């Protein structure tokens, strides 16, 4: 991976402090590790509620780093957020914390409104009181809805979220926009396509399918499996977020994508071949209600203004990801031994899995 772009802005003691929310999740943990590795003068405070998706062990290798601190707390709890700001005086915020899984938002949207909308409001209010210098809202291409067979999402594409998850992310993006407009709040929004890589919770397509295939279990493909997603390696995404933090213009939205469209069937077959399993393990199951057909991102603005583009070659990134899940099977097995089983039954039981 290339060097991070730009230098950190410095706080009172010459050391920048970034408050990262949701740093124990998939993308957040990759981001925290990347910043700590590449910026010895940046302190990273990870504020995370450790929900089902948050795992402190994702950053085990960073625990001994004096520039890293984990604070367990909920972004919906204003007193807890105020406390961490008072203790650490961060000068930058990168806001990842969210409920992130579309299928769960279909089963119950309440936690999505609470964390993604109300939690973002708390983050904005407290960041504003503390005169934060830069704030990045980590958002998703799903706020744009679904594409037909052609075309790409640009930053000008109207918001048309289709799932409760996407609606909650669109709502939080609009709150951020309103704070920039009304309060001159120094925020930037990034909207990224589907991520893959190490530490992704095994409810999302790629880690779920790897995990099932490793155990010779069938993989549930929703509907005809011809839906298209634009896949990006998580480290490329993290580089894009960091470039937006350091080089982005306040008030701007930057789309980030992998320039890598695949149908779910293509991806499923590739995973099956990488794991050396038979295609008979594919099960077409009932489709996801309201399933978006195609996502594809035009990230030329990020290339022009941030000097960023994705660099991981999908075939290499996917092979390394499969390898990582092979080597870290205990990590996934531990997650899957708990409340995950209940979720799996609720989500897939009636689909015959
Ligand atoms: P994730 O579900 O793996 O992790 C979410 C993290 O947030 C967990 O550590 C969890 O404990 C924490 N969290 C949840 N609720 C919280 C709360 N109330 N207070 C504090 N912490 C809380 O999610 P992810 O896939 O890493 O996604 C991170 C962000 O990136 C989200 O905002 C998501 O919308 C966005 N995003 C994800 C993708 C993707 O492909 N996964 C793509 C584009 C954007
Ligand atoms: P997912 O990883 O949940 O990401 P998103 O819904 O945010 O795009 O799903 C990626 C694609 O894979 C999406 O089209 C839904 C499909 N999918 C399945 O076919 N089966 C599954 O079990 C899951 C979890 C997803």
Topology:
Blueprint: E1 16-21, H1 26-38, E2 42-48, E3 68-72, H2 78-88, E4 92-95, H3 102-107, H4 110-129, E5 134-140, H5 164-183, E6 187-192, E7 194-196, H6 205-214, E8 219-222, E9 228-233, H7 234-247, E10 253-256, E11 261-263, H8 264-274, E12 282-285, H9 300-306, H10 314-327, H11 329-336, H12 340-348
Parallel strand pairs: 1-2, 1-4, 2-3, 4-5, 5-6, 6-10, 7-9, 8-12
Antiparallel strand pairs: 9-11
Helix pairs in contact: 1-7, 2-4, 4-5, 6-8, 10-11
The protein binds nicotinamide-adenine-dinucleotide and thymidine-5'-diphosphate.
Fold and architecture overview:
With 353 residues, the protein is α/β, with parallel strands linked by helices. The protein has one domain (12-343): NAD(P)-binding Rossmann-like Domain (Rossmann fold, 3-Layer(aba) Sandwich), CATH 3.40.50. Helices cover 41% and strands 17% of the residues. It has twelve helices and twelve strands. The chain has helices at residues 26-38, 78-88, 102-107, 110-129, 164-183, 205-214, 234-247, 264-274, 300-306, 314-327, 329-336, 340-348, and strands at 16-21, 42-48, 68-72, 92-95, 134-140, 187-192, 194-196, 219-222, 228-233, 253-256, 261-263, 282-285. It has a seven-stranded parallel sheet, sandwiched between helices. The chain has a three-stranded mixed sheet with strand order 7-9-11. It has a two-stranded parallel ribbon with strand order 8-12. Helix 5 (164-183) links the parallel strand 5 (134-140) and strand 6. The longest helix is centred in the middle third of the chain and has 20 residues, at 110-129. The chain is globular. Residues 1-8 have low confidence and may be disordered. Nicotinamide-adenine-dinucleotide (NAD) is lined by residues 21-22, 24-28, 48-51, 53-54, 74-76, 96-98, 100, 115, 119, 138, 140, 169, 192, 194-195, 201.
């Amino acid at each position: 991976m290339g060097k991070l772009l730009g230098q950190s802005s410095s706080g009172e003691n010459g050391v920048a402090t970034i408050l990262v929310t949701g740093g124990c999740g998939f993308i957040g943990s990759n981001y925290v590790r990347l910043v700590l590795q590449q910026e010895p003068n940046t302190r990273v405070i990870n504020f995370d509620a450790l929900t089902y998706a948050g795992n402190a062990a994702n950053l085990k290798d960073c625990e001994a780093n004096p520039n890293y601190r984990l604070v367990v707390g909920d972004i919906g709890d204003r007193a807890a957020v105020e406390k961490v700001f008072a203790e650490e005086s961060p000068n930058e915020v990168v806001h990842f914390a969210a409920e992130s899984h579309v299928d769960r938002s279909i089963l119950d949207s309440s936690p999505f409104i609470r964390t993604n909308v109300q939690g973002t409001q708390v983050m904005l209010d407290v960041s504003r009181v503390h005169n934060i210098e830069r704030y990045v809202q980590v958002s998703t291409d799903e706020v744009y809805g679904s594409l037909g067979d052609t075309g790409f999402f640009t930053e000008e594409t109207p918001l048309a979220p289709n799932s409760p998850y996407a609606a909650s992310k669109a709502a939080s993006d609009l709150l951020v926009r309103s704070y920039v407009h009304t309060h001159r709040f120094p925020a930037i929004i990034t909207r990224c396509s589907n991520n893959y890589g190490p530490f992704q919770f095994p409810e999302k397509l790629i880690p779920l399918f790897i995990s099932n295939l490793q155990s010779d279990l069938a993989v549930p493909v929703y509907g005809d499996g011809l839906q298209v997603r634009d896949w990006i390696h998580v480290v490329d995404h993290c580089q894009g977020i960091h470039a937006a933090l350091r080089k982005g213009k306040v008030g701007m939205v930057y789309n980030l994508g992998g320039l890598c469209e695949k149908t779910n069937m293509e991806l499923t077959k590739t995973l099956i071949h990488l794991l050396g399993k038979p295609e008979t393990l594919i099960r077409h199951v009932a489709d996801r209600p309201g399933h978006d057909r195609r996502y594809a991102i035009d990230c030329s603005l990020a290339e022009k203004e941030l000097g960023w583009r994705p660099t991981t070659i999908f075939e290499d990134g996917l092979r390394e990801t499969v390898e990582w899940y092979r080597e870290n099977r205990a990590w996934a097995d531990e997650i899957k031994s708990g409340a995950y089983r209940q979720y799996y039954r609720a989500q897939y039981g009636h689909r015959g899995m």
